[in-house]
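S2.1 Query sequence (Adenylate cyclase)
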Amino acid sequence: MNLPFTRLIGLGFGAFVACALALVLGLSVMANFRNTFSLLNDKAILTARSMETQIRTYFDGVEESVINLKPYFDTGDLGFGSGGDTLSNMTYAMASNSVLTVLVATDPLGRQLGVYRDPEGNLFPFTDNAPDGADPSSLPELTPESGATWGKLLRNEFGLFANVSVPLVREGQLYATLTAAVALEEVALSISNLDEGPDMTTFILADGDQVIMHSDATWLQTGGRPLAALPSDRLAYGDPVLNAIYEGEPLSEFHKAADLGVKLSMIEAADDEFLMMQVVIPGYSAEPWILGQYIRSVTFSREVRRLAGSAFVGFMALVVAVLAAVWIGRRVARPLRDLAKQSARVGTLSLDEVEPLPRSRVAELDQVALAFNAMVEGLKAMNIYVPHSLFIKLMRLGGSKAAEAREAELTVLFTDIVGFTALSQNMSAPETARELNDHFAILVRAVEEEGGTVDKFIGDGMLAFWGAPDAQPDHAAAAIRAARKIAEGLRQRNAQAARTGEPVMHMRIGIHTGSAVVGNVGALDRWNYTVVGDTVNAADRLQSLGREVEADAEILILASAQTVARLPGEAGAHPVGAVELRGRAGNMEVWRIDPCPAQEALHLAREPAAE
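Output C-alpha coordinates follow.
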Protein backbone atom coordinates (compact mmCIF):
# COMPACT_ATOMS: atom_id res chain seq x y z
CA MET A 1 0.00 0.00 0.00
CA ASN A 2 1.36 3.42 -0.99
CA LEU A 3 1.98 5.84 1.86
CA PRO A 4 1.03 9.54 1.39
CA PHE A 5 4.13 11.64 1.00
CA THR A 6 2.63 14.47 3.10
CA ARG A 7 2.31 12.11 6.08
CA LEU A 8 5.97 11.19 5.84
CA ILE A 9 6.90 14.86 5.70
CA GLY A 10 4.87 15.61 8.82
CA LEU A 11 6.27 12.65 10.79
CA GLY A 12 9.93 12.80 9.89
CA PHE A 13 11.20 15.71 7.90
CA GLY A 14 9.12 18.74 8.86
CA ALA A 15 9.61 22.14 7.37
CA PHE A 16 13.42 21.83 7.18
CA VAL A 17 13.43 18.76 4.92
CA ALA A 18 10.54 20.19 2.88
CA CYS A 19 12.71 23.21 2.09
CA ALA A 20 15.62 20.94 1.17
CA LEU A 21 13.43 18.94 -1.21
CA ALA A 22 12.12 22.16 -2.75
CA LEU A 23 15.72 23.26 -3.35
CA VAL A 24 16.56 19.92 -4.96
CA LEU A 25 13.54 20.12 -7.25
CA GLY A 26 14.43 23.72 -8.01
CA LEU A 27 17.95 22.69 -8.96
CA SER A 28 16.56 19.94 -11.16
CA VAL A 29 14.36 22.43 -13.01
CA MET A 30 17.21 24.90 -13.38
CA ALA A 31 19.47 22.15 -14.76
CA ASN A 32 17.06 21.79 -17.69
CA PHE A 33 17.77 25.34 -18.85
CA ARG A 34 21.35 26.06 -17.79
CA ASN A 35 24.41 25.67 -20.02
CA THR A 36 27.72 24.11 -19.02
CA PHE A 37 29.20 27.07 -17.16
CA SER A 38 26.00 27.69 -15.27
CA LEU A 39 26.03 24.08 -14.06
CA LEU A 40 29.68 24.32 -13.01
CA ASN A 41 28.92 27.58 -11.18
CA ASP A 42 26.15 25.88 -9.25
CA LYS A 43 28.32 22.87 -8.46
CA ALA A 44 31.13 25.05 -7.14
CA ILE A 45 28.74 27.05 -4.95
CA LEU A 46 26.93 23.98 -3.61
CA THR A 47 30.17 22.17 -2.87
CA ALA A 48 31.61 25.20 -1.08
CA ARG A 49 28.46 25.71 0.96
CA SER A 50 28.31 22.01 1.83
CA MET A 51 31.91 22.10 3.05
CA GLU A 52 31.24 25.30 4.97
CA THR A 53 28.11 23.80 6.53
CA GLN A 54 30.10 20.73 7.62
CA ILE A 55 32.61 23.00 9.34
CA ARG A 56 30.07 25.34 10.93
CA THR A 57 27.77 22.54 12.08
CA TYR A 58 30.74 20.87 13.76
CA PHE A 59 32.25 23.95 15.44
CA ASP A 60 29.19 26.07 16.26
CA GLY A 61 28.08 23.46 18.79
CA VAL A 62 31.53 23.65 20.40
CA GLU A 63 31.24 27.43 20.65
CA GLU A 64 27.75 27.19 22.13
CA SER A 65 29.01 24.87 24.88
CA VAL A 66 31.25 27.56 26.42
CA ILE A 67 28.76 30.37 25.77
CA ASN A 68 25.99 28.47 27.57
CA LEU A 69 28.19 27.70 30.63
CA LYS A 70 29.67 31.22 30.93
CA PRO A 71 26.67 32.82 32.80
CA TYR A 72 26.86 30.17 35.55
CA PHE A 73 30.55 30.96 36.15
CA ASP A 74 29.93 34.72 36.00
CA THR A 75 27.16 34.55 38.61
CA GLY A 76 29.20 32.28 40.91
CA ASP A 77 26.94 29.23 40.58
CA LEU A 78 29.97 27.45 39.17
CA GLY A 79 33.63 28.11 39.82
CA PHE A 80 36.83 27.00 41.43
CA GLY A 81 35.23 27.30 44.88
CA SER A 82 32.55 24.69 44.10
CA GLY A 83 34.70 22.11 42.35
CA GLY A 84 32.41 19.10 42.73
CA ASP A 85 29.29 20.80 41.40
CA THR A 86 31.30 22.54 38.70
CA LEU A 87 32.84 19.30 37.49
CA SER A 88 29.44 17.59 37.51
CA ASN A 89 27.87 20.32 35.38
CA MET A 90 30.87 20.35 33.03
CA THR A 91 30.56 16.56 32.71
CA TYR A 92 26.89 16.94 31.75
CA ALA A 93 27.87 19.53 29.13
CA MET A 94 30.52 17.16 27.72
CA ALA A 95 28.06 14.26 27.61
CA SER A 96 25.53 16.35 25.65
CA ASN A 97 28.10 17.28 22.98
CA SER A 98 29.92 14.21 21.71
CA VAL A 99 32.47 16.17 19.63
CA LEU A 100 34.09 17.91 22.63
CA THR A 101 37.47 16.59 23.71
CA VAL A 102 38.27 18.96 26.59
CA LEU A 103 36.21 21.49 28.59
CA VAL A 104 38.38 23.42 31.05
CA ALA A 105 38.34 26.58 33.17
CA THR A 106 41.76 28.24 33.68
CA ASP A 107 42.52 31.12 36.09
CA PRO A 108 45.40 33.58 35.73
CA LEU A 109 47.53 31.52 38.14
CA GLY A 110 47.33 28.49 35.85
CA ARG A 111 44.87 26.52 37.96
CA GLN A 112 42.58 24.34 35.87
CA LEU A 113 39.28 22.62 36.43
CA GLY A 114 37.59 20.55 33.76
CA VAL A 115 36.63 17.32 32.02
CA TYR A 116 38.25 15.45 29.15
CA ARG A 117 37.16 12.59 26.88
CA ASP A 118 39.57 9.71 26.21
CA PRO A 119 39.81 7.97 22.78
CA GLU A 120 37.24 5.35 23.91
CA GLY A 121 34.70 8.08 24.75
CA ASN A 122 34.98 7.90 28.55
CA LEU A 123 34.72 11.20 30.52
CA PHE A 124 37.22 12.04 33.28
CA PRO A 125 37.11 15.13 35.51
CA PHE A 126 40.47 16.69 36.38
CA THR A 127 42.00 19.55 38.30
CA ASP A 128 45.20 21.11 36.97
CA ASN A 129 46.93 20.13 33.71
CA ALA A 130 44.47 19.38 30.91
CA PRO A 131 45.45 16.10 29.20
CA ASP A 132 45.41 17.47 25.62
CA GLY A 133 44.10 20.23 23.41
CA ALA A 134 44.00 23.11 25.95
CA ASP A 135 47.52 24.28 26.82
CA PRO A 136 46.98 27.37 29.06
CA SER A 137 50.10 29.03 27.64
CA SER A 138 48.55 29.11 24.17
CA LEU A 139 45.11 30.48 25.11
CA PRO A 140 44.06 33.70 23.31
CA GLU A 141 44.28 37.01 25.16
CA LEU A 142 40.81 38.04 26.37
CA THR A 143 39.25 41.09 27.96
CA PRO A 144 36.05 41.19 30.02
CA GLU A 145 34.21 42.42 26.91
CA SER A 146 35.51 39.67 24.61
CA GLY A 147 33.10 37.23 22.99
CA ALA A 148 33.82 33.63 22.11
CA THR A 149 37.35 33.66 20.63
CA TRP A 150 39.03 30.88 18.69
CA GLY A 151 42.71 30.34 19.38
CA LYS A 152 45.54 28.98 17.32
CA LEU A 153 45.39 25.29 16.43
CA LEU A 154 47.25 23.12 18.93
CA ARG A 155 49.25 20.05 18.00
CA ASN A 156 50.55 17.41 20.41
CA GLU A 157 51.07 13.69 20.59
CA PHE A 158 47.29 13.16 20.73
CA GLY A 159 46.54 14.97 17.46
CA LEU A 160 45.50 18.41 16.18
CA PHE A 161 42.99 20.47 18.20
CA ALA A 162 40.91 23.61 17.70
CA ASN A 163 39.92 25.59 20.78
CA VAL A 164 37.48 28.36 21.65
CA SER A 165 37.53 30.45 24.84
CA VAL A 166 35.24 32.92 26.62
CA PRO A 167 36.20 35.28 29.49
CA LEU A 168 34.74 34.54 32.92
CA VAL A 169 33.91 37.87 34.54
CA ARG A 170 32.94 38.85 38.07
CA GLU A 171 32.41 42.42 39.21
CA GLY A 172 33.66 43.63 35.82
CA GLN A 173 37.01 41.85 36.17
CA LEU A 174 38.40 38.89 34.21
CA TYR A 175 39.05 36.14 36.75
CA ALA A 176 39.33 33.03 34.53
CA THR A 177 38.95 31.62 31.01
CA LEU A 178 36.57 28.83 29.95
CA THR A 179 37.92 26.82 26.99
CA ALA A 180 36.48 24.01 24.88
CA ALA A 181 38.85 22.00 22.67
CA VAL A 182 37.93 19.58 19.92
CA ALA A 183 40.01 17.15 17.85
CA LEU A 184 40.04 17.85 14.11
CA GLU A 185 40.15 14.22 13.05
CA GLU A 186 36.37 13.83 12.67
CA VAL A 187 35.78 17.13 10.87
CA ALA A 188 38.67 16.32 8.51
CA LEU A 189 37.07 12.96 7.80
CA SER A 190 33.67 14.53 7.07
CA ILE A 191 35.21 17.00 4.61
CA SER A 192 37.35 14.25 3.08
CA ASN A 193 34.17 12.26 2.41
CA LEU A 194 33.11 14.97 -0.06
CA ASP A 195 35.83 13.65 -2.38
CA GLU A 196 33.90 11.91 -5.17
CA GLY A 197 36.64 9.83 -6.81
CA PRO A 198 40.22 9.58 -8.05
CA ASP A 199 39.91 12.72 -10.22
CA MET A 200 38.88 14.95 -7.29
CA THR A 201 40.90 16.13 -4.28
CA THR A 202 39.56 17.94 -1.20
CA PHE A 203 41.79 19.86 1.24
CA ILE A 204 41.83 22.32 4.15
CA LEU A 205 44.53 24.95 4.75
CA ALA A 206 44.62 26.54 8.21
CA ASP A 207 46.87 28.71 10.39
CA GLY A 208 48.45 30.43 7.44
CA ASP A 209 49.78 27.77 5.14
CA GLN A 210 49.32 24.46 6.96
CA VAL A 211 47.63 21.49 5.24
CA ILE A 212 45.46 19.97 7.99
CA MET A 213 43.34 17.74 5.72
CA HIS A 214 44.03 16.24 2.29
CA SER A 215 41.84 13.50 0.79
CA ASP A 216 44.80 12.12 -1.22
CA ALA A 217 46.81 11.22 1.85
CA THR A 218 48.31 8.07 0.30
CA TRP A 219 48.59 8.78 -3.43
CA LEU A 220 48.33 12.14 -5.24
CA GLN A 221 46.35 12.79 -8.42
CA THR A 222 49.55 13.97 -10.07
CA GLY A 223 51.35 10.74 -9.14
CA GLY A 224 53.58 9.81 -6.23
CA ARG A 225 53.08 9.89 -2.50
CA PRO A 226 52.96 12.97 -0.23
CA LEU A 227 56.35 13.99 1.12
CA ALA A 228 55.14 14.69 4.68
CA ALA A 229 52.51 13.52 7.15
CA LEU A 230 49.52 15.72 8.05
CA PRO A 231 49.42 18.38 9.31
CA SER A 232 52.19 19.79 7.15
CA ASP A 233 53.42 23.01 5.61
CA ARG A 234 51.81 23.40 2.17
CA LEU A 235 55.07 23.44 0.22
CA ALA A 236 56.57 20.62 2.29
CA TYR A 237 53.57 18.35 1.68
CA GLY A 238 54.60 17.84 -1.94
CA ASP A 239 51.32 18.33 -3.85
CA PRO A 240 52.20 20.23 -7.10
CA VAL A 241 48.63 21.53 -7.41
CA LEU A 242 48.62 23.01 -3.90
CA ASN A 243 52.08 24.44 -4.54
CA ALA A 244 50.57 26.53 -7.35
CA ILE A 245 47.30 27.42 -5.57
CA TYR A 246 48.03 31.17 -5.52
CA GLU A 247 49.27 31.31 -9.14
CA GLY A 248 46.00 30.53 -10.96
CA GLU A 249 44.00 33.41 -12.41
CA PRO A 250 40.29 33.56 -11.46
CA LEU A 251 38.03 32.35 -14.28
CA SER A 252 35.72 35.10 -15.52
CA GLU A 253 33.05 32.57 -16.51
CA PHE A 254 32.42 31.80 -12.82
CA HIS A 255 31.34 35.30 -11.78
CA LYS A 256 28.23 33.93 -10.06
CA ALA A 257 30.37 31.81 -7.73
CA ALA A 258 32.84 34.67 -7.22
CA ASP A 259 30.01 36.99 -6.12
CA LEU A 260 29.25 34.48 -3.34
CA GLY A 261 32.85 34.27 -2.17
CA VAL A 262 33.81 31.08 -4.04
CA LYS A 263 36.98 31.49 -6.10
CA LEU A 264 37.55 29.24 -9.11
CA SER A 265 40.79 29.25 -11.08
CA MET A 266 42.69 27.07 -13.52
CA ILE A 267 45.97 25.64 -12.18
CA GLU A 268 48.71 24.18 -14.38
CA ALA A 269 50.73 21.52 -12.57
CA ALA A 270 52.52 18.27 -13.47
CA ASP A 271 51.81 18.75 -17.22
CA ASP A 272 48.07 18.87 -16.60
CA GLU A 273 45.33 21.39 -15.84
CA PHE A 274 43.11 21.41 -12.78
CA LEU A 275 40.02 23.42 -11.87
CA MET A 276 40.59 24.76 -8.36
CA MET A 277 37.74 25.85 -6.08
CA GLN A 278 38.46 27.75 -2.84
CA VAL A 279 36.33 29.35 -0.12
CA VAL A 280 37.68 31.24 2.92
CA ILE A 281 36.08 30.42 6.30
CA PRO A 282 37.04 32.80 9.13
CA GLY A 283 36.55 32.30 12.81
CA TYR A 284 37.76 28.83 13.91
CA SER A 285 41.43 29.55 14.62
CA ALA A 286 43.74 32.54 14.83
CA GLU A 287 43.73 32.84 11.00
CA PRO A 288 41.03 32.07 8.38
CA TRP A 289 40.75 28.59 6.92
CA ILE A 290 40.74 27.80 3.20
CA LEU A 291 38.46 24.95 2.16
CA GLY A 292 39.12 23.75 -1.37
CA GLN A 293 38.67 21.15 -4.05
CA TYR A 294 40.36 20.57 -7.38
CA ILE A 295 39.54 18.27 -10.31
CA ARG A 296 41.15 17.46 -13.64
CA SER A 297 39.89 19.68 -16.45
CA VAL A 298 39.11 16.61 -18.59
CA THR A 299 36.40 15.56 -16.13
CA PHE A 300 34.19 18.64 -16.71
CA SER A 301 31.69 16.81 -18.91
CA ARG A 302 31.31 14.04 -16.34
CA GLU A 303 30.90 16.59 -13.58
CA VAL A 304 28.08 18.29 -15.47
CA ARG A 305 26.12 15.03 -15.60
CA ARG A 306 26.77 14.40 -11.92
CA LEU A 307 25.98 17.94 -10.75
CA ALA A 308 22.46 17.28 -9.56
CA GLY A 309 23.51 14.15 -7.66
CA SER A 310 26.44 15.95 -6.04
CA ALA A 311 24.25 18.85 -5.01
CA PHE A 312 21.76 16.44 -3.50
CA VAL A 313 24.50 14.66 -1.57
CA GLY A 314 25.56 18.03 -0.17
CA PHE A 315 22.06 18.79 1.04
CA MET A 316 21.72 15.27 2.39
CA ALA A 317 24.45 16.15 4.85
CA LEU A 318 21.94 18.56 6.43
CA VAL A 319 19.25 15.89 6.53
CA VAL A 320 21.58 13.45 8.20
CA ALA A 321 22.03 16.03 11.00
CA VAL A 322 18.39 15.48 11.91
CA LEU A 323 19.08 12.24 13.76
CA ALA A 324 15.46 11.41 14.41
CA ALA A 325 14.78 11.38 10.63
CA VAL A 326 17.76 9.34 9.43
CA TRP A 327 15.81 6.26 8.41
CA ILE A 328 13.06 8.24 6.69
CA GLY A 329 15.65 10.48 5.04
CA ARG A 330 17.41 7.55 3.42
CA ARG A 331 14.15 6.12 2.12
CA VAL A 332 13.08 9.44 0.63
CA ALA A 333 16.55 10.34 -0.68
CA ARG A 334 16.97 7.37 -3.01
CA PRO A 335 14.20 8.20 -5.52
CA LEU A 336 14.89 11.93 -5.30
CA ARG A 337 18.56 11.36 -6.07
CA ASP A 338 17.55 9.34 -9.14
CA LEU A 339 15.17 12.12 -10.15
CA ALA A 340 17.90 14.76 -9.85
CA LYS A 341 20.39 12.68 -11.81
CA GLN A 342 17.98 11.86 -14.62
CA SER A 343 16.64 15.45 -14.69
CA ALA A 344 20.16 16.71 -15.31
CA ARG A 345 20.36 14.42 -18.36
CA VAL A 346 16.98 15.64 -19.57
CA GLY A 347 18.24 19.21 -19.15
CA THR A 348 21.04 18.55 -21.64
CA LEU A 349 18.66 16.51 -23.87
CA SER A 350 20.85 13.41 -23.42
CA LEU A 351 17.64 11.43 -23.66
CA ASP A 352 19.29 8.15 -24.65
CA GLU A 353 21.17 8.19 -21.32
CA VAL A 354 18.07 8.76 -19.20
CA GLU A 355 17.12 5.69 -17.16
CA PRO A 356 13.45 5.18 -16.21
CA LEU A 357 12.69 6.08 -12.60
CA PRO A 358 11.61 3.04 -10.54
CA ARG A 359 8.18 2.85 -8.93
CA SER A 360 7.90 3.94 -5.31
CA ARG A 361 5.76 2.97 -2.35
CA VAL A 362 5.40 6.68 -1.54
CA ALA A 363 2.31 7.86 -3.41
CA GLU A 364 3.59 11.27 -4.49
CA LEU A 365 7.01 9.96 -5.51
CA ASP A 366 5.32 7.19 -7.47
CA GLN A 367 3.27 9.79 -9.34
CA VAL A 368 6.42 11.83 -10.05
CA ALA A 369 8.19 8.73 -11.41
CA LEU A 370 5.27 7.86 -13.69
CA ALA A 371 4.96 11.45 -14.94
CA PHE A 372 8.71 11.81 -15.43
CA ASN A 373 8.99 8.56 -17.38
CA ALA A 374 6.04 9.58 -19.57
CA MET A 375 7.62 12.99 -20.16
CA VAL A 376 10.94 11.42 -21.24
CA GLU A 377 9.17 9.13 -23.70
CA GLY A 378 7.34 12.13 -25.13
CA LEU A 379 10.56 14.12 -25.46
CA LYS A 380 12.25 11.20 -27.22
CA ALA A 381 9.42 11.03 -29.73
CA MET A 382 9.52 14.80 -30.26
CA ASN A 383 13.30 14.90 -30.62
CA ILE A 384 13.16 12.49 -33.57
CA TYR A 385 11.40 15.12 -35.68
CA VAL A 386 12.72 18.38 -34.17
CA PRO A 387 16.43 19.20 -34.75
CA HIS A 388 18.41 18.60 -31.58
CA SER A 389 20.26 21.93 -31.64
CA LEU A 390 17.07 23.89 -32.40
CA PHE A 391 15.27 22.17 -29.53
CA ILE A 392 18.01 23.18 -27.07
CA LYS A 393 18.13 26.77 -28.33
CA LEU A 394 14.37 27.31 -28.16
CA MET A 395 14.21 25.79 -24.66
CA ARG A 396 17.01 28.07 -23.49
CA LEU A 397 15.52 31.20 -25.11
CA GLY A 398 12.00 30.71 -23.85
CA GLY A 399 10.07 28.33 -26.10
CA SER A 400 7.14 29.73 -28.10
CA LYS A 401 8.05 33.40 -27.62
CA ALA A 402 11.52 32.81 -29.03
CA ALA A 403 9.92 31.08 -32.04
CA GLU A 404 7.63 33.96 -33.05
CA ALA A 405 8.11 34.94 -36.69
CA ARG A 406 10.35 37.99 -37.15
CA GLU A 407 12.65 39.57 -39.70
CA ALA A 408 16.38 39.13 -39.11
CA GLU A 409 19.65 39.25 -40.98
CA LEU A 410 20.77 35.67 -41.54
CA THR A 411 23.25 33.64 -43.52
CA VAL A 412 21.59 30.76 -45.38
CA LEU A 413 23.35 27.65 -46.68
CA PHE A 414 21.93 25.28 -49.32
CA THR A 415 23.54 21.96 -50.30
CA ASP A 416 22.85 19.49 -53.10
CA ILE A 417 24.43 16.20 -54.20
CA VAL A 418 25.38 16.29 -57.88
CA GLY A 419 23.65 13.56 -59.87
CA PHE A 420 22.30 11.68 -56.86
CA THR A 421 19.22 10.59 -58.83
CA ALA A 422 21.46 8.72 -61.28
CA LEU A 423 23.53 7.25 -58.42
CA SER A 424 20.44 5.99 -56.57
CA GLN A 425 19.07 4.15 -59.61
CA ASN A 426 21.49 1.31 -58.93
CA MET A 427 20.72 1.22 -55.19
CA SER A 428 18.00 -0.47 -53.22
CA ALA A 429 15.75 1.63 -51.00
CA PRO A 430 17.67 0.67 -47.80
CA GLU A 431 20.99 1.46 -49.52
CA THR A 432 19.70 4.82 -50.71
CA ALA A 433 18.44 5.69 -47.22
CA ARG A 434 21.74 4.61 -45.65
CA GLU A 435 23.80 6.71 -48.09
CA LEU A 436 21.63 9.77 -47.45
CA ASN A 437 21.67 9.27 -43.68
CA ASP A 438 25.47 9.01 -43.63
CA HIS A 439 25.71 12.08 -45.86
CA PHE A 440 23.32 14.15 -43.74
CA ALA A 441 25.19 13.13 -40.59
CA ILE A 442 28.30 14.87 -41.98
CA LEU A 443 26.27 17.99 -42.82
CA VAL A 444 24.40 18.20 -39.51
CA ARG A 445 27.56 17.74 -37.45
CA ALA A 446 29.32 20.56 -39.30
CA VAL A 447 26.35 22.93 -38.98
CA GLU A 448 25.83 22.30 -35.26
CA GLU A 449 29.55 22.60 -34.46
CA GLU A 450 29.40 26.13 -35.86
CA GLY A 451 26.23 27.10 -33.99
CA GLY A 452 23.89 26.88 -36.99
CA THR A 453 20.34 25.58 -37.23
CA VAL A 454 19.34 22.79 -39.61
CA ASP A 455 16.00 23.83 -41.13
CA LYS A 456 15.06 20.85 -43.27
CA PHE A 457 16.22 18.19 -45.71
CA ILE A 458 14.91 18.59 -49.25
CA GLY A 459 15.48 15.38 -51.20
CA ASP A 460 19.27 14.98 -51.15
CA GLY A 461 19.79 18.62 -50.17
CA MET A 462 19.84 20.48 -46.87
CA LEU A 463 18.80 23.98 -45.79
CA ALA A 464 20.57 25.50 -42.77
CA PHE A 465 20.93 29.05 -41.44
CA TRP A 466 22.85 31.13 -38.88
CA GLY A 467 21.73 34.15 -36.86
CA ALA A 468 18.54 32.75 -35.29
CA PRO A 469 17.14 31.89 -32.86
CA ASP A 470 20.46 32.85 -31.19
CA ALA A 471 22.00 36.18 -32.13
CA GLN A 472 25.31 35.39 -33.86
CA PRO A 473 27.36 38.43 -35.02
CA ASP A 474 29.73 36.27 -37.10
CA HIS A 475 26.97 34.25 -38.80
CA ALA A 476 28.54 34.65 -42.25
CA ALA A 477 31.95 33.41 -41.10
CA ALA A 478 30.30 30.53 -39.19
CA ALA A 479 28.49 29.42 -42.36
CA ILE A 480 31.75 29.45 -44.34
CA ARG A 481 33.48 27.42 -41.63
CA ALA A 482 30.62 24.92 -41.66
CA ALA A 483 30.83 24.62 -45.45
CA ARG A 484 34.53 23.84 -45.22
CA LYS A 485 33.91 21.23 -42.55
CA ILE A 486 31.30 19.65 -44.82
CA ALA A 487 33.85 19.64 -47.63
CA GLU A 488 36.44 17.96 -45.43
CA GLY A 489 33.94 15.35 -44.26
CA LEU A 490 32.86 14.61 -47.83
CA ARG A 491 36.49 14.22 -48.95
CA GLN A 492 37.12 11.68 -46.21
CA ARG A 493 33.94 9.83 -47.12
CA ASN A 494 34.89 9.76 -50.80
CA ALA A 495 38.37 8.50 -50.03
CA GLN A 496 36.88 5.63 -48.03
CA ALA A 497 34.34 4.94 -50.80
CA ALA A 498 37.09 4.82 -53.42
CA ARG A 499 38.97 2.21 -51.39
CA THR A 500 35.88 0.00 -51.00
CA GLY A 501 34.62 0.41 -54.57
CA GLU A 502 31.53 2.41 -53.60
CA PRO A 503 30.37 5.43 -55.64
CA VAL A 504 31.84 8.81 -54.73
CA MET A 505 29.68 11.91 -54.35
CA HIS A 506 30.09 15.41 -55.73
CA MET A 507 28.44 18.31 -54.01
CA ARG A 508 27.44 21.95 -54.50
CA ILE A 509 26.96 24.49 -51.71
CA GLY A 510 25.35 27.93 -52.00
CA ILE A 511 25.68 30.60 -49.27
CA HIS A 512 23.94 33.99 -49.12
CA THR A 513 23.54 36.65 -46.41
CA GLY A 514 20.52 38.94 -46.17
CA SER A 515 17.21 39.67 -44.48
CA ALA A 516 14.69 36.88 -44.11
CA VAL A 517 11.62 35.95 -42.07
CA VAL A 518 12.46 33.36 -39.41
CA GLY A 519 10.19 31.68 -36.87
CA ASN A 520 7.07 29.55 -36.70
CA VAL A 521 5.33 29.20 -40.05
CA GLY A 522 2.26 27.00 -40.53
CA ALA A 523 -1.33 26.62 -39.44
CA LEU A 524 -3.39 24.90 -36.75
CA ASP A 525 -1.27 22.09 -35.24
CA ARG A 526 1.25 21.86 -38.11
CA TRP A 527 3.92 24.46 -37.36
CA ASN A 528 7.49 24.53 -38.55
CA TYR A 529 10.34 26.70 -37.30
CA THR A 530 11.82 27.77 -40.62
CA VAL A 531 13.28 30.61 -42.67
CA VAL A 532 11.61 32.06 -45.78
CA GLY A 533 12.30 34.87 -48.19
CA ASP A 534 14.47 35.96 -51.10
CA THR A 535 17.65 35.24 -49.13
CA VAL A 536 16.71 31.55 -49.04
CA ASN A 537 15.93 31.49 -52.75
CA ALA A 538 19.23 33.20 -53.56
CA ALA A 539 21.21 30.56 -51.63
CA ASP A 540 19.38 27.83 -53.55
CA ARG A 541 20.10 29.55 -56.88
CA LEU A 542 23.78 29.87 -55.95
CA GLN A 543 24.18 26.13 -55.42
CA SER A 544 22.35 25.51 -58.71
CA LEU A 545 24.75 27.93 -60.43
CA GLY A 546 27.52 25.43 -59.66
CA ARG A 547 26.49 23.45 -62.74
CA GLU A 548 27.67 26.33 -64.91
CA VAL A 549 30.76 27.31 -62.90
CA GLU A 550 32.40 23.86 -62.64
CA ALA A 551 30.09 20.94 -63.17
CA ASP A 552 32.64 18.20 -62.34
CA ALA A 553 34.10 19.71 -59.15
CA GLU A 554 34.14 17.36 -56.17
CA ILE A 555 33.02 20.16 -53.85
CA LEU A 556 32.01 23.60 -55.11
CA ILE A 557 31.17 26.41 -52.67
CA LEU A 558 29.64 29.60 -54.09
CA ALA A 559 28.87 32.62 -51.91
CA SER A 560 27.32 35.99 -52.58
CA ALA A 561 29.19 39.28 -52.27
CA GLN A 562 26.98 40.09 -49.25
CA THR A 563 28.45 37.07 -47.47
CA VAL A 564 32.07 37.65 -48.54
CA ALA A 565 31.85 41.28 -47.39
CA ARG A 566 31.46 39.97 -43.83
CA LEU A 567 34.65 37.89 -44.00
CA PRO A 568 37.52 40.26 -43.17
CA GLY A 569 40.90 38.81 -44.05
CA GLU A 570 39.41 35.92 -46.04
CA ALA A 571 42.07 34.75 -48.51
CA GLY A 572 40.18 31.80 -49.92
CA ALA A 573 37.49 33.73 -51.86
CA HIS A 574 37.81 34.24 -55.64
CA PRO A 575 35.44 36.33 -57.80
CA VAL A 576 33.28 34.50 -60.31
CA GLY A 577 31.65 37.68 -61.61
CA ALA A 578 28.24 39.32 -61.82
CA VAL A 579 25.67 36.63 -62.57
CA GLU A 580 21.95 36.83 -63.22
CA LEU A 581 20.39 34.12 -61.07
CA ARG A 582 17.32 32.33 -62.29
CA GLY A 583 14.11 33.88 -60.94
CA ARG A 584 15.82 37.04 -59.57
CA ALA A 585 15.96 40.51 -61.12
CA GLY A 586 19.37 42.09 -61.56
CA ASN A 587 22.84 40.66 -61.30
CA MET A 588 24.55 39.27 -58.16
CA GLU A 589 28.28 39.30 -57.53
CA VAL A 590 29.28 35.69 -56.94
CA TRP A 591 32.46 34.38 -55.29
CA ARG A 592 33.94 30.93 -55.24
CA ILE A 593 35.17 29.80 -51.81
CA ASP A 594 38.12 27.44 -51.45
CA PRO A 595 36.96 24.26 -49.63
CA CYS A 596 39.84 24.73 -47.18
CA PRO A 597 41.79 27.92 -46.26
CA ALA A 598 45.14 28.57 -47.91
CA GLN A 599 47.11 27.92 -44.75
CA GLU A 600 45.34 24.59 -44.20
CA ALA A 601 45.94 23.60 -47.83
CA LEU A 602 49.64 24.40 -47.38
CA HIS A 603 49.74 22.25 -44.25
CA LEU A 604 48.06 19.35 -46.06
CA ALA A 605 50.51 19.70 -48.96
CA ARG A 606 53.46 19.45 -46.60
CA GLU A 607 52.09 16.60 -44.53
CA PRO A 608 53.15 13.68 -46.84
CA ALA A 609 56.68 15.06 -47.00
CA ALA A 610 56.84 15.15 -43.22
CA GLU A 611 55.88 11.49 -43.09
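Residues 398-610 form a domain with the Alpha-Beta Plaits fold (CATH 3.30.70.1230). The longest strand covers residues 506-523.
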